[in-house]
Amino acid sequence: MQSRSTTAALDPLFRALADPTRLRLLNLIADREICVCYLVEILRMSQPKVSRHLAYLRRAGIVASRREGKWMHYRLRTPDDEAAAAILREVLRRLQPMAAMRKDVSRLTSACCAPRRFEVPAAAPAPHELPPQHA
Fold first, then answer.
1. How far apart are CA 133 and CA 121, in angstroms?
2. Which of 96, 97, 79 is nearest to 88 (CA)?
């Protein structure tokens, strides 16, 4: 039988995972920290819409953010609850081979290597890889 704390941890996780845009965001930040400006360009969505989805993921406890000057950077945060962490790891693993998710990552690679191709501000810091998270 699940404890009440596990159920409480899973509810916001499943709600956060129920949206295709949030899944795309999680796939993009799965193993890197990335400036919101890249997310806006890759997803081809408005900055307020992307920020609302990122705020939802933050409230669910699976995304962390930090400010560097005027730039907001986002990265994956592993939930403290082991059941929630295992579900998130499996979802991310299942997203990787999907064509749409691979296309997003490809666009990120292109944006980082050829920033003029996108409308990313020239001064925006490039995403950087994070060390692998241990389970």
1. 30
2. 79
Q: Are 79 and 85 in contact (CB under 8 A)?
A: yes
Residue 1, both tokens: 């039988």
pLDDT tens-digit profile of 78-121? Answer: 999 999 999 999 999 999 999 999 999 999 887 665 444 445 55
Distance CA 62, CA 80 (A): 10
Q: Which of 97, 105, 87, 86 is nearest to 34 (CA)?
A: 105
**Inter-residue contact 94 to 100 (CB < 8 Å):** no
Average pLDDT, the chain: 85
Residue whose entry in the numeric block shows the structure tokens 């996780």: 13
- The C-alpha atoms of residue 120 and residue 29 are separated, in whole angstroms, by 17
* Lookup: tokens for 13: 């996780």
Task: Please state the rounded mean pLDDT for residues 55-84.
Answer: 93
Confidence of residue 132 (pLDDT cuts 50, 70, 90): low
Residue with tokens 């005027």: 70
pTM, full prediction = 0.80
Residue 116 DSSP one-character state? G
